[in-house]
Write a sequence for this structure.
């Protein structure tokens, strides 16, 4: 079985009820660039991004569980 979903990232965000964080993302990237250009001592981009990596992994797991739940309902017969 193969399931193909054709939607843009914006449509997926809307479907899942997630906020549009494009502005926040751009602001964060600009701050990182400023720190890198300034040569901030002790700058560690990995420690700065670590909370976002954890949150992204949890979001992906929730999405997978949602799809699995939807798919398990298709195999059951209605009475």
């Amino acid at each position: 079985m193969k399931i193909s979903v054709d939607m843009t990232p914006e449509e997926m965000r809307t479907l899942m009820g997630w906020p549009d964080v494009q502005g926040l993302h751009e602001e964060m990237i600009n701050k990182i660039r400023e720190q890198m250009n300034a040569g901030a001592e002790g700058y560690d981009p990995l420690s700065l991004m670590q909370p976002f990596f954890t949150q992204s992994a949890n979001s992906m797991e929730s999405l997978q569980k949602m799809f699995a739940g939807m798919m398990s309902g298709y195999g059951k017969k209605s009475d």
